[in-house]
Design brief:
With 97 residues, the protein is α+β, with helices and mostly antiparallel strands. The chain has one domain. It is built from two helices and three strands. The model has no long low-confidence stretch (mean pLDDT 87).
């Protein structure tokens, strides 16, 4: 996924028909499923967070509309690489690099 602040903000506006400056958290997953980016406006500017899994894929909710509402617990599980359909840790890294 190559999009940064501006590219993701445009996606929020054009595809999701939402305001990227609303304070809502917008999550995007890469095609291969191992990268997720979160876009959020904190009141002063846009924040962009990214996480890449070394092994496995992020479990993404299935939706017909392209949008889904997650609870804080579901978002936390998603970012930890835990499949919320089977809540157990899927991988624990042993060494960096």
């Amino acid at each position: 996924m190559r999009k940064g602040f501006d590219g993701l903000a445009v996606l929020v506006q054009q595809v999701l028909a939402q305001n990227p400056h609303s304070g809502a958290l917008f999550a995007f997953r890469g095609k291969r499923g191992h990268l997720v980016k979160l876009l959020w406006f904190d009141g002063q500017g846009l924040c962009l967070f990214s996480k890449r899994l070394d092994r496995g894929r992020f479990v993404w909710p299935v939706t017909a509309t392209g949008t889904v509402t997650l609870t804080p617990t579901q978002l936390s599980m998603l970012l930890e690489g835990i499949d919320w359909r089977r809540p157990e840790r899927t991988f624990t890294p042993t060494l960096a690099g």
